[in-house]
Specification:
single chain; alpha+beta; Hypothetical Protein Pfu-838710-001; 7-stranded antiparallel sheet; 16% helix; 36% strand
């Protein structure tokens, strides 16, 4: 599924405490959404998704801070869980990130063999961060590191 998305705020606003949620606009195929995702300690987030007309979403994308995120989403089942695998394009080309939605924070899951490393706690992999500092701007050390937030 092709996606284009942008943010009406940036990582510094959310991580710095000025705002408690990211505000995203996404066009996903023929549909469009306005999304609010809370910033909570740990891995649990509150998320609110609202359908909006595609024309309005295009207008909202023009208001976004930083660059737009272009990606293609693939869905992969692995040992009872559905993984969302995002293949990034444009300024983030070369980056592939997989995400799984769990029922609760301590739910056990099997990491697929094709997954290179766990990056849940690495803020630089968040789409919100990639909009401001895309993968194309990362150093080789940042691309290889597993312990840099």
């Amino acid at each position: 599924v092709p996606m284009a998305q942008g943010y009406l705020n940036d990582l510094a606003m959310v991580e710095g405490g000025a705002q408690k949620a990211s505000v995203r606009v996404r066009i996903e195929g023929a549909d469009a959404y306005l999304n609010l995702k809370s910033r909570e300690p740990g891995h649990t987030r509150h998320e609110f998704n609202y359908a909006v007309p595609v024309d309005e979403a295009r207008d909202l994308l023009a208001l976004c801070i930083g660059g737009l995120i272009d990606k293609r989403r693939h869905y992969v089942r692995h040992e009872g869980h559905l993984w969302e695998v995002d293949e990034f394009l444009g300024d983030n080309a070369g980056l592939v990130v997989a995400e799984i939605e769990l029922q609760h924070a301590d739910e056990a899951f099997a990491m697929p063999a094709w997954a290179d490393r766990q990056v849940t706690d690495s803020l630089r992999y968040y789409n919100l961060a990639l909009a401001s500092r895309p993968y194309s701007q990362w150093t080789d050390a940042e691309r290889a590191a597993t312990d840099i937030p």
